[in-house]
Amino acid sequence: MVINAGKVKSPDGIVVDYDPERDVLRVVTKHTDRSEGMSVTNGVELDFDAVSNKPSGATIIGFHRNNWDDKLRELSKILQGHTAIDPDIFVKAIIETVARR
Fold it and tell me: Quick one: residue 67, left, alpha or beta (phi over 0 = left, psi -120 to 50 = alpha)?
């Protein structure tokens, strides 16, 4: 994991950032100039590239408020279903990111 400017980047290229003031966790699996989101559950918004419509990550609004910090396995399964990336990669990157804040 590479930690840079408040963000964690996994060896798989996943970038995770957490804004504690807004309680928003952002997971980027594919850089895109423009993305659109689809709300699925308890503040989880799945992000898609606006041009290709391919998954580009997720935004979790109210990360602590919605208790996602206690349900990381469940959250990582949602992210896996969206991106087809191993859920353990998400868990590790999220823990490292949130612990730094």
Answer: left
| Nearest Cα to Cα of residue 22 among 60, 76, 58 | 60
User: In this structure, which long-range contacts are made by residues 22-26, counting pairs with CB atoms below 8 Å and at least 24 apart in sequence?
Assistant: 23/61, 23/62, 23/63, 23/64, 23/65, 24/59, 24/60, 24/61, 24/62, 24/63, 25/59, 25/60, 25/63, 25/68, 25/94, 25/97, 25/98, 26/57, 26/58, 26/59, 26/60
| 10-51 pLDDT per residue, tens | 767 899 999 999 999 999 999 888 999 999 999 999 999 999
| pLDDT tens by residue, 44-76 | 999 999 999 999 999 999 999 999 999 999 999
Helices 87-100 and 72-83 meet at what angle, rounded to 10?
130
